[in-house]
Write a structure and sequence with these properties.
The protein is an alpha/beta fold. It has nine helices and twelve strands. The chain has a single domain, classed as Aldehyde Dehydrogenase, Chain A, domain 1 (3-Layer(aba) Sandwich). The chain has helices at about 45-65, 70-85, 85-95, 100-115, 120-125, 160-170, 185-195, 210-220, 235-245, and strands spanning about 20, 25, 35, 40-45, 125-130, 135-145, 145-150, 175, 205, 225, 250, 265-275. Helix 2 (about 70-85) runs antiparallel to helix 4 (about 100-115), helix 4 runs parallel beside helix 6 (about 160-170) and helix 8 (about 210-220) runs parallel beside helix 9 (about 235-245).
Length: about 280
């Protein structure tokens, strides 16, 4: 069959989307895909792809958490710059209406907003605790570790960014399941992150069928928390049941919510004792 041609007579080049794992764009190990919008093939991630993504996130989380808060903020701000620079592409993906322009604006704003919170977390969330004895006692926030995020179908871009940004702000590494019905903004966002100074493995983006990937994400022993913003009530119930076996935190917040205290959903509070005068 001859290649299709565009209106100006040249051969039409259709974009090939891939998974984003460990800083690389890869095909699903199974080679499977599903058709989206009639002419775009979306990679259909497998259980092995999910394991690879979790392994990459686990390897990256210590280095990301060890970076200074200011540097994490700089990298998130750089991601906002790169997203803003590809505004026209995302507006086109989201339908080109006024709502599409606002959604891209809101996504850029979310990245900038959380970038500004990276070096303020310890002061706002942490505390100095009164104790009986010659000691200082501090409560210090620490990242939970590897966080799984089930992206909401709508709004496809800003809904995902508002889930990712607070988790990244706190120093976590992510495994993201792109929306099944609207995967293109999430897969294209991976291209933005690949050019935004984000360290390899900190964010991994998978596409595919949720019914195939969710059970393994929820039951994986190396995933510390899972954000279920994109799940149905039945899916949330199944995730909570699977997560109970490995004491995984299940985070449920509205996709439009944006708050510094949402960051604490992906953090642990560590208590440190220090002798007075030392």
């Amino acid at each position: 069959m001859p290649a299709a041609k565009s209106g100006n007579g040249r051969v039409e080049v259709r974009k090939t989307y891939k998974l984003f794992i460990n800083g690389e764009f890869v095909r699903s190990e199974s080679g499977r895909a599903y058709r989206f919008d009639g002419n775009v093939n979306i990679p259909r991630g497998s259980r092995k792809d999910l394991r690879d993504a979790v392994r990459a996130a686990r390897g990256a989380v210590s280095g990301w958490a060890a970076r200074t808060a200011m540097n994490r903020g700089q990298i998130l701000y750089r991601a906002a710059e790169m997203l803003d620079g590809r505004r026209a592409q995302f507006v086109d993906l989201l339908g080109s209406a006024r709502a599409a322009h606002k959604e891209v604006d809101d996504a850029v704003e979310a990245l900038v907003w959380y970038a500004g919170w990276t070096d303020k977390l310890a002061q706002v969330i942490g505390a100095t605790n009164p104790v009986s004895g010659p000691y200082f006692n501090f409560t210090i926030p620490e990242p939970t570790g590897v966080v799984g995020i089930v992206a909401p179908e709508e709004p496809a871009l800003v809904g995902l960014v508002r889930r990712m940004a607070p988790a990244l702000c706190g120093g976590n590494a992510l495994v993201v399941l792109a929306p099944e019905e609207t995967p293109l903004p999430a897969l294209t966002l991976a291209e933005v992150l690949a050019t935004s100074d984000l360290p390899v493995g900190v964010v991994n983006v998978l596409s595919g069928y949720r019914k195939e990937l969710l059970p393994w994400l929820a039951s994986h022993m190396d995933v510390n928390a899972i954000d279920v913003a994109g799940c149905t009530p039945d899916e949330v119930a199944e995730i909570e049941k699977a997560a109970a076996d490995n004491v995984k935190r299940v985070v449920k917040h509205a996709p439009e919510e944006m708050s510094p205290y949402l960051i604490t959903a992906f953090m642990e509070m560590k208590t440190v004792w220090h002798p007075v005068g030392v």
